[in-house]
Amino acid sequence: MHMFSSRLLFSFVCCLLLITNFTSQAIAENTTQNYHYFCDDTNDRGNYTDNSTYHTNLNTLLSTLTSNAEIDYGFYNFTNGENTDKVYAIGLCRGDVKPGECRKCLEYSRANLTQLCPNRKEAIGWYEDEKCMLRYSDRSIFALMEIGPAYYAHNMLNATDLDQFNKSLSTLLRNLRSQAASGDSRLKYAVGNISTPDEKTIYGLVQCTPDLLGSECDSCLVQSIERIPIDCCKDSLGGRVVRPSCNMRFETGFLFYGPTAYTPPPSSTSTTSKGSIIAVAVAVPVVVVAVLIFICIYLRAKKPGKKYKTQQEEHDDDEIDISESLQFSFNTIREATDDFSDSNKLGQGGFGAVYRGRLSDGQMIAVKRLSRESSQGDTEFKNEVLLVAKLQHRNLVRLLGFCLEGRERLLVYEFVPNKSLDCFIFNQANRAQLDWGKRYKIIEGVARGILYLHQDSRLRIIHRDLKVSNVLLDQEMNPKISDFGLARLFVVDQTHGDTNRIVGTYGYMAPEYAMHGQFSEKSDVFSFGVLVLEILSGQRNSGIRHGENIEDLLSFTWRNWRMGTPGNIVDPTLNNGYQNEIMRCIHIGLLCVQENVSARPTMASVVLVLNSHSHTLPVPLEPAFYVDSRTGNLPGMPVWEFNSGTTRSSEYANKSFNEASITEPFPR
């Protein structure tokens, strides 16, 4: 009898465990304790050998992946190495995991993944209820929406009122999906709950890697949610779908996530009903702090013999102090560049020379050495350090550090091997290397980089000197925007600025900036439009020769667009296989260079239409600085591309303003 009771108790416990735990339905994945992982042995990525260059680069990258303490939003994406030995890595923590816990989770995952997938060039692992994900590869995995490998899991208990339960679940996940997709480049994460008619609560969580576009995040989550009635968790009280680019989970009756660890700054356009409450909650302490600051400054000013700094000066000094962790010694840079030898000199900019260097650990760098004679060098140096050190985006050149010793002012950048875009677009021999696919990727990448500056970065920045020579190309011809010496920081609600010092490169400067010193996001949009037309045509904006006549690119493009001969604009080295896409990009370029500031699109709109051909584009108006020297009327045009406008000649049409700093960290 006793043995029978023991067996009965054992059976009951086993059944209880089956009911309360999840059962996993994994696709191409393995599990060890709380760790799900996948070693790529299906896509012929190949192995690396122990102590090889790739192995060293992988270990270095993974060991330093979370070393940037300023990243407090749980997303790390970095690379290390060059050519076939280059390693890409992504670390992502669930939105409720605090920074310290996130770093520990990724460290644990690093040790696990490299042991479980020895010598594999590509691997991915998820640890402890997807608290963190780590993946690495020898191919670029950034900003790439991937849905596999994946694994699914579901609760063994089923819902009772299936119709109502599934309707409530669908509503919850649809709302969370929309919230996550609207997140910025730091966090695409949403949690929430919904009550069912039988008074049960469903808790949900969705997350994407924040380097995805909103539309890509939405698509990934849609595909995950669609698996619920198929592979995942049909009629279950809980389930999850976990993919490289996104994950989704829901549970009924218990809260499985904590408070969100990182909250992005609120949008200035927020119209939620909680807005006024939040405003009061924030305003009171802000006012108190402001009063205390005023009192401190007043008392400090009253001290005899003490000269106090302005708030802006103190802010600048504080920012330099924050950047001390990025500071290199002058001797380190001198050794890396072989004492700034001519053989390592890459180019000469407006405020100094650029040198190639190699650090003691083998990392290649590009060093911008500001000229000692430059009266503007200190200003540009400080501006570039304060802004660029805080920017992290795959389409921006990464600032590794700086040197500030005596009269030496040095900026240390990542080394970008494939020169700048103008070395390809305007070079007859190199131009053919850029087929339409590469050019479209460059256009799209530059658009995303500018959108990040305008909207998604912690700071809101106007570049003011976007041009082809400031777009560098990495090993895979991905664009990286460089040179932030002229960039200007905007506060949250600021829409435009004014300056008496017009700096930049004429031909790329918007008319309102060139003539009146007014700059805004739309002045960067104008520069982007010029850049797009140069990429499409292979022609510099400075002039296109037709016999004895020289015409600027904007006039040439507009004239051919109105005449119905846009094919004359396109670089002859491009084939005709992508005619519709090329014509659409010409259309986008013309919209960006319109004289009317308000008629130009935002960079968010540009990125949207570049990624979706279903959006209808408005008819472009006349570009700025348009000069039509011909007499007589233009021949008739198709209605879809015609728009009458006032022709005006700019008095600045033949003048040049170029006081810009030119950073060129690439080989010549």
Biggest sheet strand order reads 1-8-11-12-10-9
Main beta sheet:
6 strands, antiparallel
What's the N-to-C terminus distance?
A: 89 Å
In percent, how helical is the residue content? 25-40%
How would you portray this structure in words?
Pfam families: PK_Tyr_Ser-Thr (PF07714), Stress-antifung (PF01657). By secondary structure, the chain is of the alpha+beta class. It has 4 domains: 27-137, Gnk2 domain, C-X8-C-X2-C motif (Killer Toxin P4, Chain A); 151-252, Gnk2 domain, C-X8-C-X2-C motif (Killer Toxin P4, Chain A); 326-414, Phosphorylase Kinase, domain 1, CATH 3.30.200.20; 422-641, Orthogonal Bundle (Transferase(Phosphotransferase), domain 1), CATH 1.10.510. The protein contains 17 helices and 25 strands. Strands 1-8-11-12-10-9 form a 6-stranded antiparallel beta sheet. α14 packs antiparallel against α16 (579-592). The chain is globular and about 80 Å long.
